[in-house]
Amino acid sequence: MMIVLSRQEVPLATLEPLVKAQLIEEWATSVKKQKVEVYLPRFTIEQEIDLKDALKGVGITEVFSQSADLTAMSDNKELYLSKAVHKSILEVNEEGSEAAAASGMIAISRMAVLYPQIIVDHPFLFLVRNRIKGTIIFMGRVMNPEAMNPSVHDFEEL
């Protein structure tokens, strides 16, 4: 999981158009291991997309008509598709991120501050990326993260 957090004074809308595949690849290949404390709010993103128009747009139309032949899938000769939906959910919490087969980790600590702190308390972009192929699996933005005060929350050490 990659978090793109601008400086507080730079609006996310200014940063978003600059985030392209080539830049993401550069970030991923130039990252250096360093211990940091990351304070990231819990969030869940859900999206449901109706695929019917997209499928019809690429020529898959017959399965949506009442004369569709889906007997290879079912003995019911009256069967046809009325809807095709894709739903995705990304949940990020103290245990990491969970979405399909993608996972990541949030490093947080109860110890005294020994490492640089990254406090995600203003709008940010996130993406879940396959490290081997570089494919972006999920990408989105969080516009209203809950403000996090590290001294108030009881964080678990990972």
TrEMBL record:
<protein>
    <submittedName>
        <fullName>Neuroserpin-like</fullName>
    </submittedName>
</protein>
<dbReference type="InterPro" id="IPR042185">
    <property type="entry name" value="Serpin_sf_2"/>
</dbReference>
<dbReference type="InterPro" id="IPR036186">
    <property type="entry name" value="Serpin_sf"/>
</dbReference>
<dbReference type="GO" id="GO:0004867">
    <property type="term" value="F:serine-type endopeptidase inhibitor activity"/>
</dbReference>
<dbReference type="InterPro" id="IPR023796">
    <property type="entry name" value="Serpin_dom"/>
</dbReference>
<dbReference type="Pfam" id="PF00079">
    <property type="entry name" value="Serpin"/>
</dbReference>
<dbReference type="InterPro" id="IPR042178">
    <property type="entry name" value="Serpin_sf_1"/>
</dbReference>
<dbReference type="InterPro" id="IPR023795">
    <property type="entry name" value="Serpin_CS"/>
</dbReference>
<dbReference type="GO" id="GO:0005615">
    <property type="term" value="C:extracellular space"/>
</dbReference>
<feature type="domain" description="Serpin">
    <location>
        <begin position="1"/>
        <end position="145"/>
    </location>
</feature>
<comment type="similarity">
    <text>Belongs to the serpin family.</text>
</comment>
<dbReference type="InterPro" id="IPR000215">
    <property type="entry name" value="Serpin_fam"/>
</dbReference>
